[in-house]
Amino acid sequence: MIKSELTQGEIGDFYWRYINKIDDKAELIETLENNRIEFSDFLKTVPQEKWDYRYSSGKWSILEMLQHIIDTERIFQYRALCFARNEKNSLPGFDHDIYVLNSDAEVRRPDDLIEEFKSVRKAGIFLFRSLSEERLKIVGNMNDMNATPRAIGFIVAGHALHHKDIITQKYL
Predict the structure, then answer these.
(1) Is 58 within 8 Å of 100 (Cβ atoms)?
(2) What is the model's pLDDT at position 81?
(3) Distance, CA of 22 to CA of 161 (rounded, Å)
(4) Where are the alpha helices (DSSP H) in the chain?
(5) Which range of residues forms the domain containing residue 33?
(6) Is 15 exposed, middle or buried (0-12, 13-18, 19+ CB in 10 A)?
């Protein structure tokens, strides 16, 4: 499945800001695998003293941001699984700020979070690899918008790139 095959109706407009970070010719599984390696390698270069840093009052630390990425991947993997299995119920949204506030990320070690990210992403890769082209195109509803598993796959890769950009621009 190539990113350029996605259509506007497969996901709400908000999520295209993540999908558009991925090259149009990118293949889903390869993108997820390469993104997992590249993002993990990038995180390993973050200086120890920056993990708790906040560039402004009320902003997340890098520890919290990484926990947010992990939580979001888990939620989006669940959504992709539900849609691929033809779930007809609308899935609820989630308040990412509440999740971060209750994550206890500040007591986690960076290397532990990096390993967790790699494991969660690897589980997602197995999920997306297991889905046929037909299943990747099944439309479900999440947070009052339509979505397909294949769009969700590109969202999670783009979401990590989005936060990499924020870390690079505002934290390092």
Answers:
(1) no
(2) 98
(3) 9
(4) 16-19, 28-44, 62-84, 96-101, 110-130, 133-136, 149-166
(5) 3-171
(6) buried
Average pLDDT over residues 18-24: 97
Q: Which two tokens stand for residue 133?
A: 């082209």
| pLDDT above 90 for 11 | yes
- CATH code for the domain of 41: 1.20.120.450
Domain count for the chain, please give it: 1
Q: Going along the chain, which residue ranges are E strands?
A: 140-142, 145-147
CA distance 67 to 1: 28
Q: How far apart are CA 122 and CA 20, in angstroms?
A: 22
Q: Which amino acid is at 103?
A: S
Give the whole-angstrom CA distance, residue 26 versus residue 147.
19
Name the phi and psi angles at 91, rounded to 5.
Answer: -90, 140
Other Cβ atoms closer than 10 A to 167: 18
